Amino acid sequence: MKKLKKYRIFQVAIAASLILSIHACKGKSETPSPSAAPVNEVELITTVKVIMTDTATNTITTAYFYDIDGPGGNGPTILDTIKLNPNKVYQTKIYLLDETKNPADSISNEVLKEGADHLFVFTSTGVNLSFKITDKDKNNLPIGLSSNWTSGAASNGTVIVTLRHQPGVKNGTATPGETDVEVAFPCKIQ
Amino acid sequence: MKVVLIHLYLFFSLSLFSQKSECHFTVYGEVIDSTTMLPLELTNIELIGGKSKGISTNSKGQFFLNNICGGLVELHISHLQCEHIHLQFTISKDTNITIYLQHANHVFDKITFAGKGDEENSIEKANGKKLELLKGGSISEMMQNIGGIVLLKTGANISKPIVNGLHSNRVIVLNNGIRQEGQNWGMEHAPEIDGFLATEIELLKGTQAMRYAADGIGGVLMIKPLSVFNHKSGVIKWEYNLVGNSNGRGGASSIILGSKLSEKIPIYWRIQGTYKRNGNLRTPTYFLSNTGMQELNYSGALGYQNKRLKLELFYSSFYNKIAIFKGSHIGNVSDLLNAFNADTPAVRSGFTYGIERPNQQVQHQLLKANAEWQLNSKSKIQIVGSYQKNHRQEYDVLRSSTSYQGPNFNYFINTFTTDMAFMKNQFHKINLTAGVNGTYQSNSYTGRFFIPGFYNKGLATYILLDKNIGRLKLELALREDYKHLTSYLWIGNTLNVSNLKFMNGTFAFQGTYLKNKFWTYSVATSSAWRPPAPNELFSNGLHQGLATIEIGDPALKPERSFNQLLDIKYMTKKFYLETEFFAKKINGFINLIPSLPPQVTIRGAFPVYKYVQQDIVMAGLNLNLKHELKKQMFYKLNSNLLFTQNVKDGQPISQMPPLNAKLWVGKETQKTMFQIWCQATAKQNRYVFGSDYVAPPKGFILLGIDGSMDFKIKHQTFKLNISVNNLTNLKYREYLNRFRYFANETGRNITIRIIVPLQLNNKKQ
C-alpha cells in the first residue's frame, strides 16, 4: 500500500512537471516585428576601389565597383572601366569597403590583419597587363593589397580582381578556399 | 444504454500455420471496455455470410471464429440493445483483433479499419516493422517506403519528402493533427519532428486531406503518435529505444513512458524524450568535413476522458544543430564548378563530433489543446487549438575572425491555428464532418534577407461526407479558403507593404468498390489550390548553397491542380498487389527557371532564376507488391514512376525523381525476420538541358540487409534489429541531393537498434 502511494506521488510529480514545462516554453522572446526594418549585422563588401599610381608621373587613376545592396537585389550601380597608358608601371592599392555602415567599414584592413588567410589574384584577358604582388603575410606569402601592374602595348580587355579566403589552407596559389570577391573590370590601354 | 465502438486496434500475429488451405483461418481476440479497460462479455459477434448464428464473448471478453475463408470478412458486432456495427476487413492469416468498446457511454468515434494486408502493404502508409527498421533516422527518412515518396536531400543530414514529384510548399506535414509550420519553403529546411514519436505515417489523398488543407497539391502527410488514451491505470508503460550507427559513430536514445493516473481518476499522461548525436559521416573513400549533428527533443501529453468529454494537452520541443558540409561552402559559380570537377573535396577532414560553421540550428515548439464533446451517441464536437514557435538560424563561414559571430540568417515564424468540427454519424445514412478553421501567422527576420516579414491570416470552412451503399463507399469533401497575406518588404530605406487576398474553393470525390474478397477498386478526383508563397513572391537574393540568384514575382497568381487517381488492390491469402495510377494537371504551376543574363555581383556573375507560372501535367504509377512463398519466405517490390511535362512547349520539369524500384527478399517468422534488399534508381534523363550546372548523375543500385529478432531474458522482452545500408560501399551521387555537386553519397552504414518495452505493474507488488 505504501508503494502504491509512492507510485501515485510519482505520477502526480510527472504530471506537474509537464504542466510546468509547458509554462516554461513561454517567455524570453526577442522576436522582431514582421514590419521592422531589417537588421543585418553581418558585414557586406559593397565597394572595391582600385587606386593605380603611375610610378613615373605620380598620376592617379581610380576605378570603382559599387553595389550597395550586396549580391542579389539591384545590380552594381558603378562598374568603372580601368583606363591605363601603355608601357607604364602602376603601383596599385586595393580597398574593400562596407558602405552600408556609417562610417564606412574598411574590410581591407581586416584582410591585412589576417593576411595569412587571404590572397588577391589578378588575371587579365585581352589586355596587355602583368601583375606582381608586393606585400607579404607573416608566412612570407603574397597578400595582394599592394601590387605593381605593368602595362604593355595598347589593347582592350578585362582585369579580374579576385579575393580568395583561404583560412588554414593558404599556400600562395589561387586554388584553395573560396571566393569572397570577384570583380571583372573592363580595361583599356590606350 | 447504447454501446458504441470507439477504437479498434488490430494486432495481427503472424501465424505459424500459414500453410493452411483457404478456409481454415481463425479470427480471434477480445472485446474490451475502453473506459474501464475490463473485458466485455456477452458481446455478440456474427460472421456475415457464415453458416453459424454467431457467438458471444466469454467472461474474459474473448471470442474465436474458426474456419474463416481468406479475403474479405464482414463481422456484425452488437452488445445488448446497442447499435449494430458492421466491420469489413481482409484476412490472409490467422488474425487477432482487439476491439475497444466504450461501454455505457454515448460515445462514438470514426472507425478506421484495415485488414492485415492493407495495414502492412498499403501504398500510402508506413507503420509497424517498416518504421521500426528506420528508427533513429530523420522523420523524412521514415517516410521513404510510402509509395511515391522519395527524399530531397541537402547532404546526408537534411532531408524532406518529395511526394510524387512535389515538395516544400506543396506538401503539408501534419504533426499530431497540427499542420507543421516552419520555414517550409526552403529546400534545405527539413520538417522539425521527432521520428521516435511516430507510430504511423500516412499519406492522405482525396477527401480526408481536405479537412486539413486545400494547398496540399502534392499530398498531406500525417504523422501519428500513439494516443495518450491508450494507457492503462496501475501500469506505467515504458519503451526504451537505443540506436547506434557505424557511419557517423553515433546514434540515438529515446524513452517514452505513460500511464493512467488511477481507475477512478481518468487522467492519462505520457512523457517522451530523444537525444541524437552523430559525428562526421564518411563516403566510401573519404570523410565529409563538418557533417555531424545533434538533436534533443522532448514532449509531454496529458489527457482527461469521461463519459462525454475528452481533453488533451500536448507539448513538444524539437531542437537540432546540423553541421553543413564544408566542401559545399562556395563563393561563386567558379568555386562550384571547381568543387564539382574535383575528384575529392578540397576541404579534407578526419573524424570529429564537433560542429563548426557553416551550420544550421532550429528550435521548434508545439503546444496543442484538443477537446471533444460527445453530444449524443451520434454527434460530436471537436475543438483544437495550437501554437507553434519556430526559430531557424543559419551560420555561414566567417570571413574573418572579427566578423559578426551571430547567425547570418535568423528567422522567426509563429503560428496559431484553431479548428472546430462537428461530426455526425448516420445523418440520413451519411456520416458527416463539418468545420471551420483559422490560422494566424507572423514571420520576421534579422540578418540576410531572403523572404520579407509577413502576417498570414487564413479562414476556411469544410464539409466531408461519406456513405456506404452495399459494397460501394462514396466520399465527398468540399472546402472554401480565404487567405490574407500582408508582407513588409524593405528596399533600402523604403518599406513596401503589400496586401494579397486569395479566396477559392476546392473539392474531392472518392469512390471505393469492394468487388469481392480479392479485388478493391478506388477512384478519386480532386482539386487543390495554393496561393503563391512569400519566397515565390518576394525572394530576391543569392541562394548561397546553390550559387544562384532567385527572383520572385509579386504578380504571381495561385496555382490549381486537378488530380485523378485510380487505385487497384488485389489481395489473396499470400499475395498483395496495389497499383496506383495518377494524373495531375497543375495550372499556373510556380516554377523556378533560368533567366538571362547572369547578374554581376561583387563575387562574380551568378545565374539568375525567376519564378514563373506554367501549366504542367504529371502522370505516374506507384506499385506495391508482396508475395509470401513457402517456408515463410517472401518477396516485396515497391516502384515509383513519374512523368512530367510543360503543356506549352512539351519540356520536362527539372528536379523530378527518376524511376526507382526497391526489391526485398526475405524470411519472416513470428519472432525473427531477415531480408536483403536492392534499390535501383535510374538516371533522370528528363530535365531541361542547361538549367543546371551539371547533368544529372548516372543511375545506381544499392544493396542492404535488415534482420530483426525478439527475445526474452527473464520475462523481459527485447527487440533487436540490425540494418546495413549501402552494403557494397558504392560510390554514387543522387540527383535529388543538392550536394551532388560537391561530394559522393555516404558509404556503408551499419545500424543496430534495441527496443526494450517495460511495464511497471505496481499493483502486484
Describe this protein's structure.
The complex is a heterodimer of chains A (190) and B (765). By secondary structure, chain A is of the alpha+beta class. Chain A has one domain: Immunoglobulin-like, CATH 2.60.40. Chain A contains 2 helices and 11 strands; from the N terminus they run αββββββαβββββ. In chain A, a hairpin with a 5-residue loop joins β1 (47-54) and β2. Chain B is mostly beta strands and 765 residues long. Helix content of chain B is 4%, strand content 57%. Chain B has 5 helices and 39 strands. Chain B has a 22-stranded antiparallel β-barrel. Chain B has a 5-stranded mixed β-sheet with strand order 9-14-15-12-13. Chain B has a 4-stranded mixed β-sheet with strand order 1-8-2-5, with no helix packed on it. In chain B, β19 and β20 (309-323) form a beta hairpin. Chain B is globular. The chains are: A alpha+beta (190), B mainly beta (765).
CATH topology annotation of the largest domain in chain B: Maltoporin, Chain A
Spell the H/E element sequence of chain A.
Answer: HEEEEEEHEEEEE
Number of helices of chain A: 2
Structural class given helices, strands, pairing of chain B? mainly beta
Which homologous superfamily in CATH is the superfamily of the largest domain in chain B? TonB-dependent receptor, beta-barrel domain
- Beta fraction of chain B: over 45%
Mean pLDDT of chain A: 86
Tell me briefly what this model is.
Chain A is built from two helices and eleven strands. With 190 residues, chain A is an alpha+beta fold. In chain A, the strands form two sheets. In chain A, strands 1, 2, 3, 5, 6, 8 and 9 form a seven-stranded antiparallel β-sheet that branches. Chain A has a four-stranded mixed β-sheet with strand order 4-11-10-7, with no helix packed on it.
SSE topology sketch:
The complex is a heterodimer of chains A (190) and B (765).
Chain A: H1 2-24, E1 47-54, E2 60-66, E3 78-79, E4 82-84, E5 89-98, E6 105-106, H2 107-113, E7 118-125, E8 129-133, E9 146-151, E10 155-165, E11 178-189
Parallel strand pairs in A: 4-11
Antiparallel strand pairs in A: 1-2, 1-5, 2-3, 5-6, 5-9, 7-10, 8-9, 10-11
Chain B: E1 4-10, E2 25-33, E3 43-47, E4 55-56, E5 62-68, E6 71-79, E7 85-91, E8 95-102, H1 116-121, E9 125-127, H2 128-132, E10 149-154, E11 158-163, E12 171-175, E13 178-179, E14 198-204, H3 207-210, E15 219-225, E16 235-245, E17 250-260, E18 267-278, E19 293-305, E20 309-323, H4 333-341, E21 359-374, E22 379-395, E23 409-427, E24 430-447, E25 453-469, E26 472-491, E27 494-514, E28 519-530, H5 534-538, E29 540-543, E30 548-551, E31 559-571, E32 575-601, E33 604-628, E34 633-646, E35 660-668, E36 672-681, E37 700-713, E38 716-725, E39 749-761
Parallel strand pairs in B: 2-8, 12-15, 30-33
Antiparallel strand pairs in B: 1-8, 2-5, 3-4, 3-6, 6-7, 9-14, 10-11, 12-13, 14-15, 16-17, 16-39, 17-18, 18-19, 19-20, 20-21, 21-22, 22-23, 23-24, 24-25, 25-26, 26-27, 27-28, 28-31, 29-30, 31-32, 32-33, 33-34, 34-35, 35-36, 36-37, 37-38, 38-39
